[in-house]
Amino acid sequence: PKNLPLKGKKVVVTAGPTRERIDPVRYISNFSSGKMGYSMAEAAASLGAETILISGPVSLDKPAGVKVVNVESAADMFEAVRAEYEDATIVIKSAAVADYRPAEIHTQKIKKSDDDSVIELARTTDILQTLGEWKEDQILVGFAAETENVIENGKGKLQRKNLDFIIVNDVTDPGGGFGSDTNVVTLISENGTYHPYSSMPKKELATVLLQAIVQEEGLDTNND
Ligand code: PMT
Questions:
Q1: Is residue 34 assigned to a domain?
Q2: With DSSP H G I counted as helix, E B as strand and the rest as coil, what are the percentages for the chain, rounded to 5?
Q3: Residue 167 belongs to domain with CATH number
Q4: Which side of the chain, N or C, has fewer Cβ within a 10 Å radius?
């Protein structure tokens, strides 16, 4: 049916920040609240999809009709996404994955001294880039959190990571970004189409974005 275009299809969404442990009591993270990703998962479920939400640590309620897999670090998120990737129709990477983790996780709490201190960082795996390399017929949707040259930087990520769509947000825009209930984004497709959206609630925006993706991919017409 037209109102459930994702019925029988599996959608995987990632949301929230990751936490990279320094020692038993400290970690490195970012300001993602998970609101954008949880809204995307809720929208996918409401369009009929079997929805898997892979979530970093957030304080949001589990959306109705969605299977939630809780993870902590970028490495955990990578494993969880990998396990769900092969038979997914759409994968949406809303999570703000840490690009770096402490090179070493101390097993005991690091003691303070009067000296300054340095934490050595190592790169995490770029999950989305890896999914792009493995892509068969999955529709791969990334987000780009930018603070300058928003469109060009977003398009660069779309191409580099072999995506079908990228949802670009200027995270300095007062109408959106990390933590807020609203967002301002542009949806860019690999075919070169642009859909700029003005500030709207993340919940509403999520449905608008998914419907645009469904339409561009023709998923609304090949369903009986
Ligand atoms: O959670 P909220 O408070 O609602 O905020 C929403 C948001 C601003 C976090 C969201 O809209 C958003 O932009 N998410 C992506 C944040 C991000 O990490 O962007 P990026 O430009 O650094 O990364 C680009 C893409 O690569 C993202 O899809 C990201 O999930 C992915 N990535 C990045 C690094 C990494 N190691 N692995 C990845 O898969």
A1: yes
A2: 25, 30, 45
A3: 3.40.50.10300
A4: C
Pick from 20, 92, 93, 164 the residue to mutate for probing ligand 1's pocket: most ligand atoms within 8 Å of its CB. 93
**Gyration radius of the chain over CA positions:** 18
Write down the pTM of the prediction.
0.96
Instruction: Say if the ipTM goes beyond 0.95.
Output: yes
Q: Is residue 224 part of a domain?
A: no
Q: How far is the CA of 144 from the centre of ligand 1 (A)?
A: 6
- Asked whether residue 92 is assigned to any structural domain, the reply reads yes
Whole-angstrom distance, CA of residue 156 vs CA of residue 61: 34
User: Which residues participate in catalysis according to the annotation?
Assistant: 30
Residues with CB under 6 A from ligand 1: 32-37, 74, 93-97, 99, 124, 126-128, 142-145, 157, 169, 171, 177-179
Mutate to test the pocket of ligand 1, among 20, 40, 91, 97 (most ligand atoms within 8 A of CB): 97
| Inter-CA distances, 52 with 9, 42, 120, Å | 11, 10, 34
Q: Is 222 inside a domain boundary?
A: no
Domain that holds residue 182: 10-98+121-216
Q: What is the count of structural domains for the chain?
A: 1
